[in-house]
Amino acid sequence: MKKILVLNGPNLNLLGVREPEIYGRQTYAALLEQIDAWAKELGLAVECYQSNHEGDLVDRIQAAYGVFDGIVINPAAYTHTSVAILDALKAVGLPAAEVHLSDVNAREKFRHISYAGRACAAHFIGLGFDGYREALAWHAARSDG
Ligand code: DQA
Fold first, then answer.
1. Which residues form the active site (predicted)?
2. Cβ density class 19-35: b for 16+ within 10 Å, e for less
């Protein structure tokens, strides 16, 4: 069974409370439940981790090397700033999918740049929670391991 690490960046723990007109009213706990259900359907073993700290996310990406078969990552605000997360993804070389709940390309200009996205082979942007399902399905369908 493929093992997939799902990483979420800062403020995603506040889903449901945080700018609901952009991110919806469903909570982070609800997202985790959905991810679990999708993982079962797709036959994946999934571990989820959220952090508000850039270095924590880098540590988790590094620790995934040799343990996980792929990564789903929504780096949140660090998407647009973090070369460290980009470098960590490149360093471990695991197949990675980028997810954003909102359509970052239709928002402020500073959200149009994605550093982490440069190390991701698939991108699911502006699909809300379904983006995570699509990203997991992409991993499930991958034939490279
Ligand atoms: C986000 C988009 C980012 O620009 C923002 O900083 C977030 C969430 C999204 O999922 O739409 O925190 O990654």
1. 23, 100
2. eeeebbebebeebbeeb
pLDDT, tens digit (0-9, with 9 covering 90-100), for 68-91: 999 999 999 999 999 999 999 999
Give residue for tokens 């780096």: 75
The reported pTM is 0.97
The ligand 1 atom at the shortest distance from the C-alpha of residue 76 is 13
- Give one word for 126, left, alpha or beta, with left for phi > 0 and alpha for psi -120 to 50: left
Q: Is the CB of 18 under 6 A from ligand 1?
A: no
Which residue's CA is minimally distant from atom 7 of ligand 1? 76
Q: Establish whether 139 is an annotated binding residue.
A: no
